[in-house]
Amino acid sequence: MLKNCKSAQERWGGVSTLIDSWLEERRDVLVEFCALGDIRDFDSKNSVHREKLKAFCEILVDYTSAGHFEIYDQLVQEGKELQDNQGLEAANGLLETIDTTTEMILDFNDKYLETDDLKTLAADLSQLGESLEARLAAEDQMIEILHTAHSEKVMNKA
Fold first, then answer.
1. Is the separation of the CB atoms in 134 and 101 below 8 Å?
2. Which residues contact 41 (CB under 8 A, 6 or more apart)?
3. What CA–CA distance (Å, rounded) separates 17 from 19?
4. For the segment 95-124, what is each residue's pLDDT rounded down to a tens digit?
């Protein structure tokens, strides 16, 4: 996933300050996710494990929120301004995928903010990883469909 994140940033980096910042935050989410994955036996009494989990949850929710309340809106607005009905229709399907992953992310966050029991964390991280992979693919497609495809038109408008 981290390799795909770097590839996405190389493809779309510099296109928009907002998207650049968001892709950097995505990279940070994946780094924190991998750091948790390196822990073999989670111990709820280990303050380092709890702090790593807390830091991961915070950045994951921040990243998720930025997507929903900043990035997707910007991408959809661009599609509307350029009257890209086909791109907007495709984006609606992608947003359904993203919304499903958002529910999982919020459930994960809520669960681990409310419990010190880390017995199921490894399994939950595995499921979350699959969900994140689907989310990142959908986000990349949205960027491709509603921003990169319009980059020439946007430059001409400016």
1. yes
2. none
3. 6
4. 999 999 999 999 999 999 888 788 889 899
Q: Tell me the C-alpha distance between 75 and 134, whole Å.
A: 19
Range scoring the smallest mean pLDDT among 30-39, 43-52, 145-154 = 145-154
Any idea which residue has 């995928």 for tokens?
Answer: 97
The C-alpha atoms of residue 44 and residue 97 are separated, in whole angstroms, by 32
What pTM did the predictor assign?
0.82
User: Which CATH number is correct for 2-157, 1.10.10.10, 1.20.120.1370, 1.10.3720.10, 1.20.120.30?
Assistant: 1.20.120.1370
Report the distance separating Cα 48 and Cα 24, nearest Å: 24
73-13-27 Cα angle (round to 5): 85
